[in-house]
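Data deposition worksheet. Section B asks for the primary sequence of the deposited chain exactly as it was used as input, without tags or linkers unless they were present during the calculation. Section C holds the resulting structure in token form. Section D is free text for depositor observations; keep each observation to a single sentence. Incomplete worksheets are returned to the depositor.
Section A, Depositor: J.P.
Section B:
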Amino acid sequence: MQPTWDILQAMLHCHYKAWQLAQSHDESSNIHLHVPLSVEKPVVLPVTVLTANDKIVLTALYQNHLPTGNQPSKSLKITYSGKEPDAQVTSVRIRMDSKKAQKLFTDALDVITIREPPAFYRNPHCPFCSYWDTCYKKLKERDCISLLSGMSPRVIQKFHKKGIYSIVQLSHLFHPRRRRRHPQVSTNYLWELKALAITEQKTFVLYPPDVKESPVSIYLDFEGIPDEGWIYLIGVIIKENGLQDKSYSYWANAKENEEEIFASFFSLLRQYPQVPIYHYGSYETKGIKQILTKWPQLKTSAVSVESNMVNLLSFLRTHVYPPIYSNGLKELTRFLGFKWSVEGTDGLLSIDWRKSWELDKDEKLKENLIQYNLDDCKALIVVQHWFLHLAANKEDTDIKQVSEMKKQSMYKLQNNPQLGEDFQFISKAAYFDYQRSKVYLKNKNTISKAATTGQKPKSGKKGIMVWKPKKVNEVIILLPKSACPRCGSTNVYQSKRKILLIQTDLKFTPTGVRQHVVEYQASYAKCSNCSLRYNNHNFHRLQYGSNVFAYVTNLYVGYNLSNYMISRIMQEQFGIWISPMYLVMRKEKWCMMVPKNWTGS
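Section C:
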């Protein structure tokens, strides 16, 4: 079987839909372009206007159906028409070297030839798909995380790499964090908190929504046709304290009346300056900007409209997480108990009603559209009052403040119910061993001295030794010089100030090898004859003793260990920290200790 028009169209949205179409093999719904394709005759397509995706599909069909000798090198001009009898013939030019089209056709071949269905997830095309009802049941059965509306494939793959496939598993990832003194609203959407809200069927409030009561409030909703890029209906409800609600509907019979209904709408808002205008989503704000771009003369009457608009949907992205799969207005208000006058209506059905009205001018359809638009405005009132209730922080069994949740960590041996009963049992069984081994080893009275002195020292200033052993095993006091080194006078004054040098070395004993620290002490002196100040002894000793270098040389030459590994062995076995770079820079000391008759092995 070769990929057809509808299968390639499905591949652009969902591989599982393309596989189902291939399995059904409904010839009546598939569009087969005859082979060889005739470039001269127009091709009948199910669309009258080709979109960018339609051009890719058409290119893929022509690339793989035209004979090799008839294929042009770069582009090809195609004529097509719709299925309608009076459809006009239109021409379009497609690129025959399109890599996207070739990849689309190759992927479609791979999908329709496999027996097992490919993995599928919820995507934006699902509401338009005829298989959505069956797919939704399957997604609910496996509790798929793609049911959370707005989760991109990239985010789904990120959670899959962590072993998270269900909403219940995702809910266990949420842990309340320490709150800042001056809290900042997070811009990242917390999918874990959304999953937790669905699992526990509670509304979680991360931050109280910044919605304030006003004596006058305006609720706004637009109805338009996105494909044609214009708005035909504006619904407004004005709510004032102590007065009955006022409803306004501005209807446009054709696209030419769009400017007229917006002029009336702006003149109404001019009567209510500095009044919050509540809407849901970005469709209203983008629509107003588009209108002001089309007709700049309306800007004078819409001075403060954009600044007064309040998007209620924005609080569901940063502040409030209700127990619903999506943040759509219909699903949210149904959760809050609101009912539409005509059940089952949505944005897609309203577009169909508008298209039907344009054909037969049925007044019943117009009344349904106006009522549906006003119901959306009433739903906004319900959402705004609900936000006011959440901002008041009133006690409710179905509402939970994240700031009041107990902060638990799964990295501590304590009660972690979020990790499951099996992990709880393992954690309790391991707690005694943890006390006996880990806590006991941290006792300073019982821990070995090598472990306490073997910690890596902090970096010091340039020229200052960072390795300082905690205990000195031996002190050697060097005798002062009896005569001045310059004039030879024996009349010298000895200072009480001492010069100290601490040298870390190893001591080889019959029972083993251990760390041995020697402190050398000398003094200052001054000649009474020539007034020369001098040290009784100039220390030429290194920070580490000869036995250390002998042992290091043995490891380096005899066992071919790296400087890094030698440094690690010295720290773990003897508690002596030697920088690997120090060993590299002191190679001349090593050479001095190798016997002259040593030839290597």
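Section D:
Residues 27-37, 447-454 have pLDDT under 50 and may be disordered.
Residues 166 and 531 are 87 Å apart (CA to CA).
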